[in-house]
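S2.1 Query sequence (Catechol 2,3-dioxygenase-like lactoylglutathione lyase family enzyme)
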Amino acid sequence: MARDDLPNPAEGILLAHFVVAADVARSAAFYRDVLGGTVVREAEPAIVKLANSWVIIAVGGGPTEDKPDVTLETPSDPHRTSAFLNIRVADIRAVYAQWCARGAVFLTPPQDRGREIRCYLRDPDGHLIEVGQTV
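Output structure tokens follow.
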């Protein structure tokens, strides 16, 4: 695996999205098969290269020395969220059709919101994902 296939910046910073999954292989398959990413690491944590970023997928767990009061878990209520993955696309209608054909289930079709067209879907553990196109 090439160095540029992993989220390891040569300098500065790099942003990756971390999700907690009940089944790491199932979630990695979703990000690969539905969203079109490339699994660059299958072992936990799995890493999926998605466009110009990475999604890191691991099971949850209790506090550790570096996060002593934090427990990682999948969303307990999919109707409430405080953060989500935001994917910007050039042609939302084409992406919507392609991902639906691959098995994505969107909350609604793309909605024109004036400055952007957007829609949302969830990964297998209920993490919310926004797909948007600026107009």
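Residues 24-33 form the longest helix (10 residues). Residues 120 and 130 are 5 Å apart (CA to CA).
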